[in-house]
Amino acid sequence: MPELTYREAVTKALADELRSDPDVIFFGEDVADAGGAFKVTPGLVEEFGPVRVRDTPISEQAILGAALGAAVTGLRPVAELMFADFIPVAMDQIVNQIAKYRYMSGGRLKAPLTVRSAQGGGAGFGTQHSQCAESWLASFPGVKCVSPSTPAEMYGLLRGAIRDDNPVFVLEHKLLYNLKGEVADNAGPIPLGKARIAREGKHVTIVALQVMLHRSLEAAATLAAEGIDAEVIDLRSVQPLDRDTVLASIQKTGRLVVVEESPAGAGWGGDIVSLAADEGIYHLDAPVKRINMGGMLTAYSPPLEDAVIPSAARIADAVRDVMRGYRRV
Amino acid sequence: MSATTLPLAARQNALRHMLEIRIAEDKIQEMFMANLVRGTAHLCIGQEACSTGTAAALKPGDTVTCTYRGHGHALAMGMSLRSLMSEMLGKADGCCKGKGGSMHMTDASIGLLGANAIVGAQLPIAVGAALTAQIKKTGAIAVTLFGDGASNIGAFHESLNFAAIMKLPVLFICENNVYGEYSVWSKTTPIENVADRACSYNIPGVIADGQDAEAVYGAVKAAADRARAGEGPSLIELKTYRYKGHSRNDTGPYRPKGELDRWMKRDPIVILKERMISDKQLDQAEFEELQHAAEVAVVEAIDHAKAAPYPSIAELATDIWVD
After folding, report:
1. Which of A147, A181, A284, B161 maximizes the CB count within 10 A of its CB?
2. DSSP reduced 3-state for B243
3. How far apart are CA A124 and CA A81, in angstroms?
4. pLDDT in tens, B5-38
5. C-alpha A38 chain-centroid distance
């Protein structure tokens, strides 16, 4: 199987969809001539031309509004917002327009659009260029949101997003762009809303996304040496949420740790904990743990940034905690 | 400025629609005051020439996004009175199955992609509809209508700049009705005309008499022809006035004495009616017949809407996602 980087998986998924459907178009800031600020989209304008692949002004509201207007009139636009931190600049178009357009029309319009955006910390970009956007986007119905963790997930979920008839945000983690992995020659779209068991285990369930998923797998390897067999779930999608996979895993392990790369307030991790408390409570053998950035912000200074984002060591500690038994006294 | 003349059938259509809009808005106001419907409503009484003149310049396939003051646009574009009144009352056979309401009249089958309750948010959406027209070479144009207040919103600037640089077939039509909510234009904006802003985008900025349906038609038609020819967007400012307040509970106490009376002397219905009478296309008796027919149609639609069923509670969970 050919090996691609996560970055190349984005490019290939876009190219494959642009090639297979003439209604797919792609636009954003510096995505055409410059090939993207993260060099994720080189060669697309050369292959598909400046009508279907376009650079836009720095105008996030216009980019997302244009994607919506194009989607409800018959195209399948893919728009890029360079950094996920710019999502709030266009929040009206997301919360009030894109998410509600179908509903407000009584189901007579649909908006098959995709928004790609680079997110996440750990790269020294400072506090306005390092945030994860899942929890902002999962707090209202009408918009799907996926967070691919590997090149294969990136390729399949992006194609799945473009083919989905709903609006979808595809969040790409900046730290993963150089990650290599196998993507099958005949790989196709992955339908959205299904979690993936990244590591099977029987003692504790860890639910995570993207960099936190990789750190959870690293923690699981450490814990295995201590006799703790962790199951790691790559949630892949926070909207919709794959409740069944999470609940089935809790039923098997009886313990739950949720890891988010974001502040605690109203985060998606709370939804997982709430699901466990509500429908999974009788499967639980220990209190659940939710680890994230608490009430803190991403910092610029390297030791501060490293300390605020959950590390593999912190994840392992949380697992040891829940393994210690029913209640700590 | 002399108005472009519409053919007789189009004049009759415009007059009939203006009467229907005026009467429908009056009745909606009555229903709100009688607490028959909930929420709020933004009436376009006084601005009927803007919607009818614009609609007269559209072709099938063209699309429109507009503001929450959108009942007139919906009716002028051909939405049925029943569909509008049922939506107003939240009934299942309303244009949005009762899920939109007064501020969200939408009907893609007539090209109405949605009235919008967020000031200025409809402009970028029209830009996207124009992108589809350009890419698919449909020959259609996208029209977006907004108020003077929206020209101070960031989305206005982003949309005009975006559309201008891509030469998109979109018309930005500002109904300058002098007030942005309760504040007079001159208090919030340091220029006299919204149209003056067009120079920043290197596109035409045109001012037309918003009380004269044919003047509106002429300005919109010229800009539409230009857009269809691939020459890009235009900004059109229609000078108009709303006779009523901003919304349901606003009586307009901030207006200087005499201002409303001065505007009412240039009433859009009277202007077209008198022109048709002087062109021997209409007489007073025929006008009164039209007025009566419009009233009957509006009352029938309201009776229909009152009797229509509400959506079932199960409808809460539908139309959010495409399955």
Report:
1. A147
2. coil
3. 19
4. 999 999 999 999 999 999 999 999 999 989 888 8
5. 17
